[in-house]
Amino acid sequence: MSGQTLDAFFRPRNVAVIGATERPGTVGRAILWNLMSSPFGGAVLPINPKRSSVLGIKAYPTIQEANGPVDLAVIATPAETVPGVISECVDAGVKAAIVVSAGFREVGAAGLALEKRVLAEARRGKMRIIGPNCLGLMCPTTGLNATFANTMARPGNVGFISQSGALCTAILDWSFAENVGFSAFVRFASHQRTVRSPLWVFPHQPGCQWVIFHTGKRLPSSSCTLSSGHTHCLASWVILPKLGG
Hints:
With 245 residues, this protein is of the alpha/beta class.
């Protein structure tokens, strides 16, 4: 994964929220509110074809009509619409996307077919995706909160990535009690197929000194080995110092 793609996730110049809404209790509203409430130094672009503004911010009918090239799109629309949304993002030159929508592999064959269509569209444009069916991504050191979580993690020097939403919630609660901070905090899809890739994400993050990676299943030893030789692999956990400068 290139540094440019990583910047689109962790240091985006702008973030489009596809499915942004003012309806209380919805994921689209929570994500938009979090992005607005925790400034990250970039623009927030609500995408909603039925509204001219959402929560006081100018909205755009489609991603193609958004103001300028989009680094990161956060997608919170029904599962059946996501392949088409990803296709539109690819055509608009969006660099990266987070799909928080549920209703894919976890619901059976029909959902798996939808997921394959999403991946096919993303590969067409060489666009990287976190998800589907995920919490999203926080980068407390820059202020980015592209999740629907109720709280923002404290800034610190630990990169945390997990496939478990329940564990992410528990770790966040614990971190506030123990005053632990994070350079980045990611919950990705429970079936995200790459194990090695997440381990190589955080070395690119300024201020990250340790990486904690949790998966829902035991990792093969080959997935726990990096060139430093300082990796600690505890069943489904990987704990390692950041590589590089």
